[in-house]
Amino acid sequence: RAGRAEAVVSTQSTGNSEACKNELKDLDFLYVPAVHHKLSSKRILTMDFAEGISLVDTEKVKAAGHDGKEIMTKVIRIFSEQIFRTGTIHSDPHPGNILVRKNKSGKLEVVVIDHGLYERLPTQYREAFASFWHSVIIDDYEEVQRSGKLLGLNYPDMMATLLFFKPYGKMKEMGFGGMHGEKRRKKFEDMTEEEKKKVEEIRHMGHDTLDSLPKELALVFRNIRLIQGINLSFGVPVNRVRLMAEIAVRNSKKNEDFITNLKSQAKFEWHFFVLDVRNWILSWTLWFYSWFVKKEEGKVDVSQAALFLKA
């Protein structure tokens, strides 16, 4: 049994790594170690040895002169292209599986290893997810519901809320945003019956959304969270949501006329303009608060607050 399992894993890893390499060959900053078939067997997978610095050690990466913004821009591009364009998705992109180095031209190169765990999204499913992501950004509620149902989501609004850390649709109407600050600290037993009912309903929707998540989407969700964590570890040098959204837009098959597309683009740009202003205000507010109000208690960790905004 162990032998058969090893053979399957070896075969899958070979197919996945070669698919990643071929499907993203237009990304000249991506390196996927080549498989040596003549030196491999059903139980042994032989690949090129790739040197580089693991993203686990962010301090070592920075000390080597690598720019965090450039790293995250390229890392997010790689995995977003998989999610929204190719549909062949690396489902375990933790920092230990991503290395960075300089190529022969002295430019930053991202090395992706360990291609054992992958998910393959059918075209219709991939396009539906791209449309879902784009539609949440431009607040196209009807399309969020349509694409959400195509993805097998019982509660598309809850999924949008979990993905973007921002109450969306019915979650906002139900006061999900009110769970923050003073209201969040309010004890359950001190709430009114109406508040308790809302909290229980939101909990049910959250658990149901995650428990009933289709297998394909569960691994995509894992991919997104891992990349989000890496972005956070570098201090959130880039707006991950925006970069992913731009790629989702390019791969969202929505048959719209010129005027409709123009309106969608305007909504898209406005959304991120408002978000950038909000981020700027929050950063300065936290800086002011940490220096003049809570200086004796230590500075506020701005990067943690940024998790809910752009990580």
Question: How would you sum up this structure in a few lines?
Answer:
The protein has 311 residues and is α+β, with helices and mostly antiparallel strands. The strands form two sheets. Strands 1-5-4-2 form a four-stranded mixed beta sheet. A two-stranded antiparallel ribbon has the order 3-6.
Chain-wise SSE layout:
Layout lengths: L1 H22 L6 E2 L21 E2 L3 H6 L4 H19 L1 E3 L7 E5 L5 E5 L5 E3 L2 H16 L2 H10 L5 H9 L5 H4 L7 H5 L7 H19 L3 H19 L6 H11 L7 H35 L9 H5 L5
Helix pairs in contact: 3-4, 3-10, 3-11, 4-5, 4-11, 6-9
Description:
The chain has 311 residues and is of the alpha+beta class. It is built from 13 helices and six strands. The protein has a four-stranded mixed β-sheet with strand order 1-5-4-2. Strands 3-6 form a two-stranded antiparallel sheet. Strand 4 and strand 5 (108-112) form a beta hairpin. Helix 4 runs antiparallel to helix 5 (141-150) and helix 4 packs across helix 11 (240-250). The radius of gyration is 22 Å and the shape is globular.
Spell out the helices and strands N to C: HEEHHEEEEHHHHHHHHHH
Instruction: State the helicity in percent bands.
Output: 55-70%
Beta-strand proportion: 5-15%
Low-confidence stretches: 1-9, 178-185
Secondary-structure class: alpha+beta
Count of helix runs:
13
Largest beta sheet: what is the strand line-up? 1-5-4-2
Distance between the termini: 42 Å
What average pLDDT do the residues reach? Answer: 82
Sheet with the most strands, sense and barrel status: 4 strands, mixed
Radius of gyration: 22 Å
Number of strands: 6
Envelope shape = globular
